[in-house]
Amino acid sequence: MESSFQKADGMNYAPISTGIVRKAVEKGRFFFSVIGLDHGHISAMVNGIEEAGGTILNVYDKDPQKVDAFIKAHPSCRRAADTDKVLCDCSSMVLSAIRPDKRFYLGEAVMNAGKDFFVDKPGFLKLSEVQKVRELSENTKRRYIVYFGERIHVEGAVLAQQMIDEGRLGDIVSIQILAPHRLNAATRPDWFWDAEKNGGILTDIGSHQLEQILSYAHANSGTILSASVGNFNNPAHPDFQDYGQVSFVTDNGVQGFCRVDWFTPDGLKAWGDGRVFIVGTKGILEIRKYVDVAVSDIGDHIYFVDNEGEHHICAAGRTGYPFFGELILDCINRTENAVSQEHVLNAMELALQAQDMAVFYKRSINENEKR
Questions:
Q1: Do 263 and 280 form a contact (C-beta atoms < 8 A)?
Q2: Sheet holding 222-231, edge to edge
């Protein structure tokens, strides 16, 4: 299991399989490289692809110290002199956690170079970028895939998807997601506090939740009903958004709601008490993703009730992370089994639409003011 320190640090949380490991290819069959080490999620992304059989070739970042640390963790990786060296190598895919406002431009270059792009969330900061990638994917036949780790890199979330797909919950009626995160303010780079560079809370961590709801609902897209964001405890960064919520309905009628925030107390052993609540016509289900508060610091708990009774399932070690092997095979075979390009783009469109329409609330000395 993950160490308590590593699990407490969401920015650098990098799950490693503890049970089932799904290897899609043998070493040397699928090569990938890395550009951009601005966010610690790159370690999780590389872990997933390497566990599934991928072989890393090159890494580039403008900060040599970040590259040094990365190569120490991945000693078979070579240091590239610049971005062009990676774009011209023999890798099939480029992974990136470059600063969010630079992701679209890097992805565009990667796809034009004939490679697939696998990037940390949020994949985009503007709706116009989503449409450009939709056109670019059609023209280049390359894919722009976003790492939505809160669904694909959590075994409780993977098992819940399998249970829904098997029909154990019946038709899905409602999905609610609570996604608190730990701020760890002292460790955050300057761009973290700037919405022009990180996209705002609904674009950033909200995109995780909207993608999950689409996936669990078997929906294509949806309509935002209401959205709000706020700054309630960060006066030193008055434009920073430390809270957000979205209500929407999917195109097949599932009611969705998500709450995201940066208010995880220091006493919690994990970076956030992430929970998912799903109501179906045959059963109800809750996922306790990272911790079972005051009971266990092991996550991946599913609580499920159907007509047969009450069930508690600990999913840790039971499913592995099949997304990564499926993604490798998709890149090789040009299929869409891990995730479709349209699903990725639709999820990001919803998040960006919610961010654009969100009302911003900020706390003043005496009252909450609506801006």
A1: no
A2: 309-314, 301-306, 283-288, 275-280, 172-180, 255-261, 243-250, 222-231, 359-363, 368-370
**Tokens linked to 282:** 């045959």
Closest CA to 338 of 103, 161, 140: 161
Q: Does pTM top 0.90 for this prediction?
A: yes
Please report where in the chains the tokens 């009611």 appear, as a residue. Answer: 255
167: tokens are 């029909």
Q: Each residue of 12-61: pLDDT tens digit?
A: 777 888 888 889 999 999 999 999 999 999 999 999 999 999 999 999 99
Question: What single string gives the DSSP state of each residue in 57-98?
Answer: EEEE-S-HHHHHHHHHHSTTPEEPSSHHHHHTSS-SEEEE--
Asked if residue 251 lies in contact with residue 282, where contact means CB atoms within 8 angstroms, the answer is no
Question: E strand or H helix at 32, and its extent?
Answer: strand 31-35
The token pair that represents 189 in the structure block: 């780079």
**Entry field: residues in the chain:** 371
In this structure, the number of other CB atoms found within 10 A of the CB of residue 79 comes to 14
Nearest to residue 346, comparing CAs of 168, 241, 212?
212
